[in-house]
Each structure stands twice: as structure tokens, then as C-alpha cells.
Design brief:
Blueprint: H1 2-20, H2 43-94, H3 99-113, H4 122-134, E1 144-147, E2 150-153, E3 156-158, H5 175-190, E4 197-199, H6 204-218, H7 220-223, E5 240-243, H8 254-262, E6 268-272, H9 277-280, E7 285-291, H10 294-303, H11 307-311
Antiparallel strand pairs: 1-2, 2-3, 4-5, 5-7, 6-7
Helix pairs in contact: 1-2, 3-4
The structure holds zinc ion (ZN).
Zinc ion is lined by residues 235, 240, 242, 288.
Length: 319
């Protein structure tokens, strides 16, 4: 728009100049389409004759030019303030956790985890939810809450080497995790991928027996890299599944690749990613998925972090 005004201004100016002022070639745009070559003779008279009519016209032109310039300047400053406003609002939306986002995040994860009577106070809520929204948990303290022996970090139920579950916590596979898996299996089938649950819920006692067998076979130090001690298994939350083949051979199969690419779309994350052993406390398990709900799973996936990094917690046995 401003450009058009400028062009108009300029050409009007040229017409004015060609007719009236530029006789000595000092105006370097003289040779343009607007200028009519006039014979030398008779020019003076024509110019003289015109002066009378041109003066008022020149004034009018001048005024018009001034108006155009004024409008152009007005337009320019207006569009600049628009841009600034846009910038400001986009900055604002990027700020970690406007209260709305925080609330959505909190309530979503509460639902996802089906936390019974664990509505934390609004005050305790705001801070960690903001953090979770950004995925930059490491910058601020995670909100850790223990309800009936269950540890929630930013509203997410956690079972790892640092945080355990009560021995009598026996929820079974939670329905929302089951239906999310069913949906995922359906989606995978459409892509020609068959997914099935090899291991779902595991009770404290079952895990105790499992871990004991691994210790006897490989020793405690080795067993701790791939098997959880009783009370520390994510399978006891009812929100984790081992899919298809529980073995290193699963890595790199079309099923494992499909899972790594699509699990988050159904609310799951690959809980123990490769190269995160030092942080999760477990070696790479491409078959082990954890249900977080679509919103949170998507955020964790996008962050490229493992859950411990995402929440700003560790996974280390106390002893
Ligand atoms: Zn597992």
C-alpha cells in the first residue's frame, strides 16, 4: 500500500515538473513517458500562457501530495503497531503456562491417571503445571505429592527407582490404559502392524518373584539394569505394558519402529528410550510403553526427553 502511494506521488510530481520546471535537464527523470518533447520555439509562450492556470493546479497538486504522504505515514505507523501487537501477543502465548494451560494440563493428567481424591490445592498446582506445559522441568522444582503412598509428580503417577508404590496397591490394568491400547492396536493394524500385550499389570508380589529369579540368574547389579525391585515396577501402576516381544530382538522390527513413531498419538510413550539408561535407571526397552494420556504423551514425545528429564526427577535406589 505504501509502495503504491509512493509511486503515485512520484509520477504526479514528474508530470508537474515536466510541464513547469524542468527545462534545463537538471531533473534526471526528465526522459520519461510523461514528458512530451516540445519544440524549442513556441515553448516559452506556451509555458507563459500556462503559468496562470498551472499555479493553482500546482497548489492543488502540492496539497494532494501532502495528503498522500500524510496518509502513507499514517498507514505505515498503523501497520507497525499492528505488528508489534501481534509480536507481543505471540510472546505472551509462549510464556510458560498461562493459567488456562496450567489448568488444562493439570486436569488432563489427573483424569489420565485417574487419581482418586488427589485434587491438590490450586496454589501447589500452578507452578509445576506451567513447567510441565513447557517440558522444561529441569529449570524449576517439580511438584511432588504423595497421596496414600502413591507419588505424583506434576500430577503424573510415578514408579521408578526413586519412587515406589505401596505393596498393597493393586489397581489392575486401568481401563483408560486398556482402551488406549485397543485404539492403538487398531491403528497399527491399519498399517499392517500387529501389536499385542505380552505383560500388563504386575502386582507387588508377582514382581518380587520375578526380580528374585533375575537376581539369582544374573546377580542383583545386573538385574537392576532391566528389572524393577518390588514396589518400583511401573507395571504395578496399571498404566504400563510390555508389547509383543520382551527382548532386544524387538528393537528395529517394523512393530518397534511403528510404536516409536506412533505410540504418543494414542497417549503412550516409550518409557525407557535408548541412551537414557543413566537417567531412567533402565536399559533400552523398545517394547515397554507407559500410558500418560494423549496430551502429556505428545508433549513428552515432542520434548525428546525421557519422563524423568521431562519432570525433573531422578531414578536411583536409595540403598
Ligand atoms: Zn515393562
Amino acid at each position: 500500500m505504501t509502495k503504491i502511494f509512493q509511486i503515485e506521488t512520484f509520477s504526479t510530481f514528474q508530470v508537474y515538473n515536466n510541464e513547469n520546471v524542468c527545462e534545463k535537464g537538471d531533473f534526471n527523470m526528465q526522459q520519461n513517458n510523461y514528458g512530451r518533447p516540445a519544440g524549442r520555439s513556441g515553448r516559452k509562450r506556451r509555458v507563459k500562457k500556462r503559468r496562470r492556470t498551472i499555479r493553482p493546479r500546482a497548489i492543488v497538486l502540492g496539497v494532494v501530495i501532502l495528503i498522500i504522504i500524510a496518509v502513507a505515514i499514517g498507514w505505515k505507523s498503523m501497520s507497525r503497531s499492528d505488528t508489534e501487537e501481534e509480536k507481543q501477543s505471540s510472546v505472551q502465548s509462549e510464556l510458560p503456562g498461562s493459567s488456562v494451560d496450567g489448568e488444562v494440563q493439570q486436569s488432563a493428567s489427573s483424569t489420565d491417571e485417574s487419581v482418586p481424591q488427589s485434587e491438590p490445592s490450586a496454589d501447589g498446582n500452578a507452578q509445576p503445571s506451567e513447567t510441565a506445559v513447557d517440558g522444561a522441568a529441569s529449570d524449576s522444582e517439580p511438584d511432588i505429592e504423595v497421596v496414600d503412598g502413591l507419588t505424583y509428580v506434576n500430577g503424573i503417577l510415578i514408579a521408578n527407582k526413586s519412587y515406589s508404590l505401596p505393596a498393597d496397591y493393586n489397581p489392575g490394568v486401568l481401563p483408560e490404559a486398556q482402551s488406549a491400547f485397543d485404539e492403538m492396536a487398531e491403528g497399527a493394524a491399519k498399517d499392517g502392524i500387529k501389536l499385542y500385550i505380552a505383560s500388563g499389570f504386575r502386582s507387588y508380589d508377582y514382581q518380587a518373584g520375578l526380580y528374585q529369579r533375575y537376581v539369582e540368574r544374573d546377580g542383583a547389579e545386573m538385574a537392576d539394569t532391566y528389572s524393577a525391585r518390588p514396589g518400583h515396577s511401573e507395571h504395578q501402576t496399571g498404566l504400563a505394558f510390555d508389547l509383543n516381544e520382551i527382548s532386544d530382538a524387538f528393537a528395529g522390527t517394523p512393530e518397534a519402529e511403528w510404536l516409536a513413531e506412533h505410540a504418543h498419538e494414542y497417549g503412550f510413550i516409550i518409557r525407557y528410550p535408548a541412551d537414557k539408561e543413566d537417567i531412567t535407571g533402565y536399559s533400552y526397552e523398545p517394547w515397554h510403553v507407559r500410558y500418560l494420556g494423549k496430551e502429556t504423551a505428545e508433549k513428552v514425545y515432542e520434548s525428546g526427553l525421557c519422563l524423568e528429564e521431562y519432570l525433573g526427577i531422578d531414578s536411583v535406589y536409595a540403598d
